[in-house]
Design a protein that fits this description.
By secondary structure, this protein is an all-alpha fold. The protein has one domain. The chain has two helices and no strands. The termini are far apart.
Amino acid sequence: MKTLSLKLDDSIFEETEEITTKMKLARNRYINEALKVFNLYNKRKLLKNQLEIESKMVRRDSMEILEEFEKLIYED
């Protein structure tokens, strides 16, 4: 496990303290869970962006292949 020092905005810190107190949860555990969720969100966002880029790259080829298949279907 890594030790980390970070600076939080006062409002974020106060809100975090309020929530962790009510939940009877250690601040460290709460921040770890929050980062885990945020990392998952950003991984999905990055993957979506990459898929959009790659989809645009193969769009033309995909349409050409589809047209070839359609020609084969209608030739019979």
